[in-house]
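TA notes, week 10

Several of you asked for a full example with nothing omitted. So below is the full record: structure tokens for the whole chain, then the designed sequence directly under it. When grading your own attempts, check the secondary structure regions first.
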């Protein structure tokens, strides 16, 4: 047994067996070359819908190598999914709510940030769209940024009430999209 971290080379492996054993191993490992027709047939067989369905079923849930007992979304709530994130981004007009830069200015998708830093709280009023740069900034001095974004929500609600919006209109867009 080699030492941990010791990289074995073919020369080291070859020293374990006699020359006769090495010759037998080499003979069994040399197979016939597959023809292009055989390769094409095997690829076609793998791409059949019934084969794909059977393969997918064989690696779902507990059968998958990375299964962790159904806790894949932890520490986030199960409601915090891509659909909810897309709704929040749409509500915020695909704009970072801190620097006001649109999604088109970034290569990456805008992140959805939890205002109160509680990852279990997926209430849309607690979620805000931020670019990656701003999201990194607001993860320091959390108490300040929690108050900052909560004040933004309150200010937006009051502004919209003064303009005659009803509560559903306020909820649908509560982070400055309708500010003038």
């Amino acid at each position: 047994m080699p030492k941990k971290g010791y990289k074995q080379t073919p020369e080291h492996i070859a020293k374990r067996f006699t020359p006769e054993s090495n010759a037998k191993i080499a003979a069994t490992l040399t197979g016939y070359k597959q023809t292009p027709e055989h390769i094409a047939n095997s690829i076609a067989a793998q791409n059949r819908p019934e084969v794909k369905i059977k393969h997918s079923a064989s690696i779902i849930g507990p059968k998958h190598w990375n299964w962790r007992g159904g806790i894949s979304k932890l520490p986030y709530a199960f409601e915090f999914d891509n659909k909810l994130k897309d709704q929040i981004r749409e509500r915020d007009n695909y704009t970072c709510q801190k620097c006001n830069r649109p999604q088109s200015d970034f290569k990456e998708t805008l992140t959805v940030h939890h205002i109160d830093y509680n990852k279990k709280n997926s209430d849309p009023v607690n979620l805000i769209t931020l670019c990656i740069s701003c999201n990194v900034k607001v993860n320091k001095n959390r108490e300040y940024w929690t108050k900052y974004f909560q004040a933004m929500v309150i200010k937006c609600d009051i502004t919209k009430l003064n303009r005659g919006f009803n509560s559903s209109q306020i909820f649908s867009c509560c982070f400055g999209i309708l500010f003038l």
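Residues 165-173, 175-180 have pLDDT under 50 and may be disordered. Use that as a sanity check on your answer.
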